Amino acid sequence: MTETPIMTPSNPTQGQPARLASEYSGAVGKILARVQAAYPKYIDLSLDRLTTLLHRLGNPERSLPPVIHVGGTNGKGSTCAFIRTLAEARQWRVHVMTSPHLVSVTERFRLAGALVQEDVLAATLEEVEAVNGDAPITVFEILTAAGFLLFAREPADLAIIEVGLGGRLDATNVVSAPLASVITPIGLDHQSFLGDSITEIAREKAGIIKPHCPVISAAQDAAVTQIIEAAATTLGAPLWVMGRDVTYRVLPDGGMAYSDPHGDLTLPAPGLIGQHQYGNAALAIATLRGAVNDRMQNADWAAITQTQWPGRLQKLGGSLLSHVPPGWDIWLDGGHNPHAGHALLPTLRNWQDRPLHLLIGMKSSKDIEGFIRPLLPYATSVLAVMEPDQYDAISVADIVAASGHVAIPGPDIVSALKKLSGETGRVLICGSLYLAGAALRRDNVFERA
């Protein structure tokens, strides 16, 4: 498969060595550090390098269980988590590949219900590295190839694979005939790689649609829906669109009324917090009903209440609480673009019972102002933070400037928390999944599920 690659912007490795040192620890870290040193582009969108490597490995991507391929901009990880919960409620064995990880690289690979053991992952990566030899390859491509090997060797009923970046030229897009292609809400993000307009980005995301394979799309802007519809029509792929073919509404008791061409469901609230998680849960339900036509009972679909996914409006309960007054709450969210900022607003409106303090740290490539500005009216204070192990972080001074100098320097999470006072209060640490990972390491309660 030959495709024209999307070239990376200048300085694609900024921050990467520190990230390998802090997050890819042990044997896995040594392997990935070698790979990164040999080909120091963190992102280089193309399929050629990986297809060549997979051929040398015996094409494990052709021996996977049925695949649900999940792309889009926001909500991919949460949607994968909902799909997994629902499938496991049916006693299916489920593989899952997601990115990025928060604390340990092993979070990226779930084998038939359990996260991969580090020694197993290290052995698989060494195998892939040996087969690749000195050929150019990115860290993400090596990880993806290792995931395919792991998934091909362990029996399962379903594999859920999250797109890394974009879709058309993402390494995961070597899967040729998925059970379903899922497209979560598309917004402006990674413009330096995918294009400056929402329609350019949508064309890249729609690249995961495959001939005659069902497509389930979240509700999108009209122009984005047109692009997805055109791609599906061209490829003869059946398409369900949320808001048209699939609908849901939040009930007064917090439950959800769901409807699709197969019928109606009345369900409890999703296990993940936030108004936007109703949409992610409905998208997951539609995926299984649209692709498998699975006649699960209401009680089975109600498994959405059991879904967990770290770093998405997660309430912390570890050592970070020792730095704020008694009775305060600390929450964590990894959303990092304007769409994610707006998705937080319904929750912030419901949080007006006590002062809200925002701790914001972001990646240098993100639209800082677009994320921060919608949040400012709900904040009693805003503190700009940058952790030493936060990958490719923007400076505290730049965050302060993007906030219109409403924010003050933290300058790091613990120092910022110690500045807060009052009888009651709530903290939201937000702006980056990499900051979320740093916060979880500081909190010392992250559990390997």
TrEMBL record:
SUPFAM superfamilies given in the database record: MurD-like peptide ligases, catalytic domain, MurD-like peptide ligases, peptide-binding domain
Pathway assigned to this chain's UniProt record: Cofactor biosynthesis; tetrahydrofolylpolyglutamate biosynthesis; Cofactor biosynthesis; tetrahydrofolate biosynthesis; 7,8-dihydrofolate from 2-amino-4-hydroxy-6-hydroxymethyl-7,8-dihydropteridine diphosphate and 4-aminobenzoate: step 2/2
Origin: domain of life: Bacteria
Keywords per UniProt: ATP-binding, Folate biosynthesis, Ligase, Magnesium, Metal-binding, Nucleotide-binding
Gene3D superfamilies: Mur ligase, C-terminal domain, Mur-like, catalytic domain
One Pfam family in the UniProt entry: Mur_ligase_M
UniProt domain Mur ligase C-terminal: residue ranges: 327-432
Catalyzed chemical reaction(s): 10-formyltetrahydrofolyl-(gamma-L-Glu)(n) + L-glutamate + ATP = 10-formyltetrahydrofolyl-(gamma-L-Glu)(n+1) + ADP + phosphate + H(+); (6R)-5,10-methylenetetrahydrofolyl-(gamma-L-Glu)(n) + L-glutamate + ATP = (6R)-5,10-methylenetetrahydrofolyl-(gamma-L-Glu)(n+1) + ADP + phosphate + H(+); (6S)-5,6,7,8-tetrahydrofolyl-(gamma-L-Glu)(n) + L-glutamate + ATP = (6S)-5,6,7,8-tetrahydrofolyl-(gamma-L-Glu)(n+1) + ADP + phosphate + H(+); 7,8-dihydropteroate + L-glutamate + ATP = 7,8-dihydrofolate + ADP + phosphate + H(+)
Every Mur ligase central domain range: 70-287
EC number: 6.3.2.12, 6.3.2.17
Protein's job: Functions in two distinct reactions of the de novo folate biosynthetic pathway. Catalyzes the addition of a glutamate residue to dihydropteroate (7,8-dihydropteroate or H2Pte) to form dihydrofolate (7,8-dihydrofolate monoglutamate or H2Pte-Glu). Also catalyzes successive additions of L-glutamate to tetrahydrofolate or 10-formyltetrahydrofolate or 5,10-methylenetetrahydrofolate, leading to folylpolyglutamate derivatives.
Family to which this protein belongs: Belongs to the folylpolyglutamate synthase family.
Name of the protein: Dihydrofolate synthase/folylpolyglutamate synthase
Organism, as annotated: Sorlinia euscelidii
